[in-house]
Amino acid sequence: MSIFDYQRLDNILNLLVQREEAIHIEEISSYCNVSDRTIRSDINTINDYIVKHGAHIVLIRKQGYIIEYSDKNEFDTFWNNQDTGTFLFTTSTSRLTYLIRLFLTNNSYITQEYLQSILFVSQNTLYSDFRILKQYLSPYSLKIANKSNLGYRLEGEEQNIRSAIINLIFKENLTDYLTGSITVDRNICNNISYRQFNDIFLNYFSNMIHLDSDYFYRNIFSSLLLAASRVKSGHTLKNFNQSIKLDRHSAKIVENFIQEVESEFNLIFSDMEKDYLQFCIAENYPNFIDDSLTKSNQQLAEEIVKTIQNFLKSLSSSAWVLDSSLEKNLLEHIKLFLKVQVIKGNRNNPLLETIKNSFPYAFDLAINCSQEIVRNYNIHFSEDEISYIALHFANAIERDSTSTLKQLSLAIICGNGRTFSSIIEAKIKRHFPNRFAKIVKFSYSTFQNTEDLEKFDIIISTVPIKTSDFPVIQINIDDLDTSMNQIENKLSELNFLESNDDLFSINRFLVLEERTKKEDVLHLLNNKLLEQGLVNSNFLKDIQKREEISSTTISDSIAVPHPLGDSVIKSSIFPVIAPKGIIWDDKIVKFVFLFAINSENSNQMQQFYDQLLDFISSDKLQTKLLKEANYQTFMDIFSLN
Fold first, then answer.
1. Among 76, 120, 156, 167, which residue's Cβ finds the most Cβ atoms within 10 Å?
2. Which one, of 562, 563, 582, 572, lies nearest residue 511 by Cα?
3. In the chain, what are the helix, strand and coil shares in percent, each to the nearest 5?
4. 452: burial class by Cβ within 10 Å (0-12, 13-18, 19+)?
């Protein structure tokens, strides 16, 4: 179905939307196999449609046609909401979604000509999309094979194909996946009645599986549905090596479930397929695993939790480390983790990137703890499992009600009388509870005769004070809400300067004028810190050790590298601003904050991480620092954050 009167018009506009540079008329007419005169007529027709939707095709002399936008959002809404055969692939993301689904659900060879005609792209664009596609398939040990005269086809183990379908297709929209409102699983498994299968599943498992996470419950359902569909289509497992033993009661229920599915859908599960179904259930709901296989897990889990607690105490003196709920939650989580380890399973965390970006301090603590567990027990945690532990840490940190802020003293100078100064005092106490240990009110005349105002951390005044002896915040009595913001900014500045005393220095601030790579930046910063005597010779090795575990990027533009080990002599934070970008893993970051924090100052990492999160969420602040890339701007931004 076309948006316009005929498909060629859609194809022409689709081509112009994809290409940022002007396209010569000969290229367009050659592609559409019509004359230049016809193309000119077609473009006039297209313009009649799109000019009212914020776009217009123009001719640039000696270059060709290009699309210009008067309202890009209006045009995108018009173009992307049409149900046509070509507009769906106007972006790399939409083409990638199509390619993933095509290759994972198709066992036949697919020619390059077919793909180019469907996606409406050049050979170079298709090859570029294939490079990205290979990156998505690589974690599942799947590859796209190219056979001369036949085309492309997916190759890999059936178990890995099923995992890729679930993770890359079913879970593309996580919210819909969790709520069961997606239709893609029904479409892909269309040889199995979705409603009938759902009824059977609920009959056997709804009262048995009690999970606090909809994610794992949904995983079980989609894994079993896909397995049944693949077996019915003839795509069966050739290899499956996991050893599973469910408890007697659970094993009987799973056996009855399998028998009913075989009967209702006229299919037969091999013994290997039955083991796989049990594995899918056990991996997502480890409680089904026979306790005789994991009888030593209780003691081992308790030892691991104790190791985590002791290690946290060495890193942080905060009260949350001793949180009893944290201990209980960690123990339950580690016990389930050890059960999954018995069957050689690996649980994904759909919120991995969210946790890394939103709780970077907790995630970093979890990584440090995981390395301690490796050293003591030779048990390795995946990045997904580390993120689950980080969530427990973040929860404990949020529950910690102990304030780490120093209480300050405040002087109020008010020339409008005692009553009004009391109103200001009351408003300040409401806005900043428990922040000021001492608040003293002065009239203007009393202030002039006071000599010890320097003992106050903050001084505010309703009247102009002409003195340079101490900073005074002048507030407006007609706009007390704005005045509260002025006080809050001052508090943030004091807290920043106090908590980050000696962490920052203009000698440890760098602006890179040219694009560079992660490795070069780390070597450069390591050398500077070595020259300043802040780290020892193992620092770079400890940094690289941390980078190997998990990327230290936060969001798409910020990296926070830091070491694993005891190579820091004196704590410091080294900011780097790179307007032209740094190639960091698979991203281009503009800001690097190198954390060189020793264990005695580990609490300062949490405080700066909190400030960093405000910076991450503010495009305005990031743009400001890129445009005004200097030390003073950096200090101003973070002292007010």
1. 120
2. 582
3. 60, 10, 30
4. exposed
Q: How many other C-beta atoms are found inside a 10 Å radius of the C-beta of residue 556?
A: 11
% of the chain surpassing 70 pLDDT: 90
Query: What architecture does CATH give domain 408-487?
Result: 3-Layer(aba) Sandwich (3.40)
Contact 556, 547 (CB under 8 A): no
Express each pLDDT in 168-221 by its tens digit. Answer: 988 877 777 767 666 778 878 889 999 999 999 999 998 887 766 788 888 999
Q: Would you identify the CATH topology of the domain 506-639? A: Mannitol-specific EII; Chain A (3.40.930)
Residue 165 is classified by DSSP as: I
91-156 folds as: Arc Repressor Mutant, subunit A (1.10.10)
- The whole-number pLDDT of residue 87 equals 46
Q: 7-88 adopts what CATH topology?
A: Arc Repressor Mutant, subunit A (1.10.10)
Which amino acid belongs to residue 381? F
Helix axes 631-639, 480-499, angle to 10 degrees: 120
Q: Return the ∠ at Cα 584 (arms to 375 and 501), rounded to 5°.
A: 70
Q: Dump pLDDT digits (tens) for 249-287.
A: 999 999 999 999 999 999 999 999 999 999 999 999 888
311-330 pLDDT tens trace: 888 877 778 888 888 999 99
Question: How far, in whole angstroms, is CA 598 from its chain's centroid?
Answer: 27
Mean of the per-residue pLDDT values of the chain: 84
Query: At the topology level of CATH, where does 296-394 sit?
Result: PTS-regulatory domain, PRD (1.10.1790)
Residue 483 neighbours by CB distance under 10 Å: 21
- pLDDT of residue 147 exceeding 80, the answer is yes
**Residues with Cβ < 8 Å from 604, sequence gap 6 or more?**
499, 500, 503, 571, 597
